[in-house]
């Protein structure tokens, strides 16, 4: 099996690509990247696909989360560790509640490129190209920094390699010990104002673990976890250079991440992103917003997953709290009627963004929970498996989303508003969300 050439992809009018000033520099970077070793391995992608197949069979749940946009400056041991810590802590709570394995996937080690709704950004009467992620141009609002530089793609590769290396070490090197992870949760419950609501669940988990230990269950499964990397496959030069033919199966794999997804703005059926990901064997995702029809979703499923292969395709719906109840059922119905069982994941972040009067892009914890609850309700009504959640979060105590345990107000946002793109849940908000999801999974 082969995959389309870059030239072929460029004839498909790819959306959301940088406007590089020097095409020969782009070609040189692409060539250089194509000689670099793969970041992930085909066998790992196959393992994740079979785990996602168990989600599709109602036997597992997916937790996918991380920054909206990673930054090169954020590639530090502390930052990666904090993110993993909060993701692993969330997964324990959900796994206990759901009584099925939680498949853990980070939005990390490659999440450096952003689609933008506007090509230009205007501040105080000055218009410059929008920031498109560290993979493309600089965050600083100066004309020099906003010029797209293809050499940044090499930095993406290096930053992703370093992040993956740390991640692999953390999740196998003792850091992922179940008892330690659970201690983080009990600390959260004790030090936050949500003691009554979650104490019971946290206590139950503690007792279950103590019981396992007295039984002598103390093997590797208590100390290590499988953890996978994912990002939006946006920049064709990068994604194409890292697409390789696997020597065992002779099949193409995108070796820049285990799971890659197509964003809401680049999922045109005859577009370049769909063409590229249709040709790789990785498990893949597609974001679906409130305007998508059942017929469109079905056409995407047929194109991206022609063999209706379990675990191959994940639909990440991001409808908005007000729309999920109406927009989601017709899509599920069309897909069900076609006999398909993709993984259904809720992204309760991207349909619930708004701007405050003091100019911050934010999201409210309440609205995020409202979309999640609405999404669970729809799946319950339609006898469909709510397969997982996709969250923008960080392990740090930032102030980017309002509400939640700390009751963050709009006036608090200026304290630690650090995101390079969309507002993320902070550590405590993320853990609270995990307990909220857990309540639905226990129903
Ligand atoms: C994102 O996940 O950061 C994103 C841009 O999402 P969407 O494609 O759903 O808008
Ligand atoms: Mn985002």
TrEMBL record:
The keyword Ribosomal protein does not apply. It catalyses: D-erythrose 4-phosphate + phosphoenolpyruvate + H2O = 7-phospho-2-dehydro-3-deoxy-D-arabino-heptonate + phosphate. Keywords: Amino-acid biosynthesis, Aromatic amino acid biosynthesis, Transferase. Pathway: Metabolic intermediate biosynthesis; chorismate biosynthesis; chorismate from D-erythrose 4-phosphate and phosphoenolpyruvate: step 1/7. It is an enzyme of class 2 (transferase). Residues 1-22 are annotated as: Disordered. The keyword Amino-acid biosynthesis applies. Its EC number is 2.5.1.54. GO terms for molecular function: 3-deoxy-7-phosphoheptulonate synthase activity. Belongs to the class-II DAHP synthase family. This is Phospho-2-dehydro-3-deoxyheptonate aldolase.
